Structures are given as structure tokens and as C-alpha cells.
Amino acid sequence: MKARELRELSEDELRRKEDELKDQLFKLKFQHALGQLENAMKLKSIKKDIARIKTILGENKEGKK
Length: 65
Known about the structure:
By secondary structure, the chain is mostly helical. The chain is built from three helices and no strands. It has a single domain (3-64), classed as Helix Hairpins (Orthogonal Bundle).
């Protein structure tokens, strides 16, 4: 996901999206450990998306102060 798309979402939607991505990441790590993961780059992509969401949430929090 692009940061521009994430900035359009509300805080609740961002938190839900973060939870979904964390769940996906957990499942992918499990598959990777078992040797069943076909695309290891998916792990990196999801980690970056989670970081983007956390950054945007932090920016929003700072802006409200």
C-alpha cells in the first residue's frame, strides 16, 4: 500500500489494517518456518506496510497536540 492511500483512512481504519497485517505477517512467518512460503518478499512488503501505518499514526498523534 502507498502512504498516500493510507493517509486517506481514518485512525480506526488504520488500526484495523495494522491488526490485519500483523495477523498476515504471523501466518507468513509460520509458513516460512515450515518451508512452505513461495514468495519471501511478501514478508518484507508487509513489514514495510506496518511501518508506514505506524508512522502515519504517529504523525496524526503529533498533529493533534
